[in-house]
Amino acid sequence: VRFSGGAVLVPREPSLDLLEAFTEHWKGITGYYLEATDESVPARQTDIPWRLKQMLDILVYEEKQRPAGETGPCLEYLLQHKVLETLGTLGKAEYPPGMRQQVLLFFSRVLGQVQHPLLHYLNVHRPVQVTHGGDATCRGWPHPCQTGDHLGSGTEKEEVQFAAVLCAKIKQDPTLLTHILEVRSPPGLAGCGWGHLWGLGRFLEHLHVLHSSIPAGERAGKEGMEGAAGCVTLPLFSSSSSQKSRVALKARENLLLLVGLAQEAAAARLVRSSALCQLLTEHLCDLYSAVPACTDPADILAMERVSWRSQGDAADDGVFPGKESLAAFFGWLDYLDEVVVGAHPVMADAISEAVEERFFQGILQPQLLQMSELDVLRATAVLTGTVRQIRAPPLLHRLVLFLLGPDRHPEIPGDTPHPLRTQLINRCNHLSDEISLASLRLFEELLQKPHEHVTHSLALRNLEARGYLQRNPPAPDEDLEEDPYFTDGFPDTGFGMAKIPLPASAPSGKGQVSEVVSSFLCLVPEEAKTSSCMEEGGYDTYVHDALGTVQACRASAAPWGWPPAPRPLDACHPEGTFYEGHFLKVLFDRMAQILDQPYSLNLQVTSVLSRLATFPHPHLHEYLLDPYLNLAPGCRSLFSILVRVIGDLMQRLQRVPHFRAKLLLVRRQLMGLVPGEQMDHTMLFKGVVVLEEFCKELAAIALVKGPPEGPP
């Protein structure tokens, strides 16, 4: 019975021969195009959806009734009479309106529910190519530049569902990739250098990985790409509605299936015969370019790590200019990171290489090396956020070598084999405190990454030969007590040097843990301590924190093969004068200025040093945490620097009237117990507070780590 609206109601027929029923339903669909008079009736108001559902049910039922792997007559009919190819053409024509949606649903259900491997058949994978845009030649797909053809006109959900089925099938059988991406250059594309990329480009449109998710209003300065190569980057990622966001999320999950191909040959083909790596990376660069130049570097640094699965939540959590664009950039970087984690090693390396070439070297490096302080701050902040986001080992490896270079031999003073590394380390001691602070934060973030080359490049390469140790025992009159800071020439100020445990009075090297802890805790004289005057000294908190950080460091370093004990001295052959290396030199120089630099900078310097001290390498442990080292002439250690800072502090405090009361007041201000007020020597007093807390932190780390094993 045909209703006035064009809908057709067909009563459910009695049990008939399956093939007869299947062909009847197919003829009913083709007959609609001969009988229909109203071209505006939507497909869902016709009997087409019902007939397609019946055909699907018949195919599934038939397969269950036959031995596994045997093709039934209905499936043979579908293949021999090019049913799918005809449906693909009808879907492209969008007649009746909404037919494309019905075809996508039917294709998805057939491929997903019929267990027989279908995609190897020419009469299946060709219409599949037509449906996902893979064959733009024989089916008349127009050039997207000419038509403005964008996917997403009401069928996003069905497109992604269809792509999900294809990805799942390719995941099960990677050889199908050859059929899905088999393509000839469409007319008009051969001359524009894009032909062989068309198939994957159209397929990726369905995956929605080429969305332009750059928020409206923040596209300043972004020009459209010219030529056919730019046509694949279609603005499909609209985050304007929750529905489209869910579609985009599902689409990205589909691509994760695709890149995880188990067979190396399939992964290599995907790399070699497609623009996937290029397109993923170009989108990252586009999103970065869309971040407004006025975005405050402090806001960038303050952003938490963004997850691509909950990117919208990050954009809504706190508002500042550029927040949405920044969240989109870091969200896509997080997605790329997960793609690399799940991809076949061939694909992972190709994506990582593309990110390094196009983003690290092509965009970040020029910005990091420029002279404008504001631009340097912004680029350093983005780099810090990038380090925080990246976890995939291949991508992290590329990032570490990009920043630090591959060199592993001991450094030579003044040698700069990797200019970017040199520049970044130099900026930790920059004239601008803001740049110094941002650079130190970058290295702190880098030291938290599970990559052996970070600690080796920054510190361990220069400690391998233990050149900081004096080979022959010092004569009695050559110990540290002869240092000018340890003479008895100070006026009587009430805090004598006898209260400081001098390293020379202890056995040579490797003091007991209790002695090491006591050395750090007693380094600051009682008169200069303020934590004991508060309700809680805080040492227990440092021990608790050290337990977590040391355990995490040990877990990260476990695969690196570090020795449990220092190398025997007779096996160490240092070449020339010991040099602690560029990074430690800058940190030590900064530490020596702790009484004369801003509070925030002191916190950051000590944070980086304490992070280094938590690493379980025995050479790093003794160099940073052993107060009883016999240092070679001209060498310094962290403890020796602290001793000299304390000596300088004791001299300077003599010249400050009522220093004790003022020091306590500053401590209470830093804790927020009293309002802040201007006074003389505030920077000095804040430095003393940081110095005391740093010594407690080092003592806690030394206590948790315990002594290194083996002989000195």
Structural class: mainly alpha
Question: What is the N-to-C succession of helices and strands?
Answer: HHHHHHHHHHHHHHHHHHHHHHHHHHHHHH
Relative strand content = under 5%
Helix content class? 40-55%
Q: Please tell me the overall pLDDT.
A: 81
Largest sheet properties? none
Which consecutive residue ranges, at least 5 long each, have pLDDT under 50? 1-15, 134-152, 183-202, 205-242, 478-509
CA gyration radius, whole angstroms: 34 Å
Characterise this structure:
The protein has 712 residues and is an all-alpha fold. Helices cover 54% and strands 0% of the residues. The protein has helices at residues 18-35, 48-64, 73-80, 83-93, 99-113, 122-132, 144-147, 156-172, 176-180, 198-207, 242-259, 264-272, 276-289, 297-302, 311-316, 323-342, 345-368, 373-389, 393-404, 419-426, 433-447, 452-458, 513-521, 539-557, 582-592, 599-614, 618-625, 638-653, 659-670, 682-705. It starts with 17 loop residues before the first helix and ends in a 7-residue tail after the last helix. Mean pLDDT is 81; it is low at 1-15, 134-152, 183-202, 205-242 and 478-509.
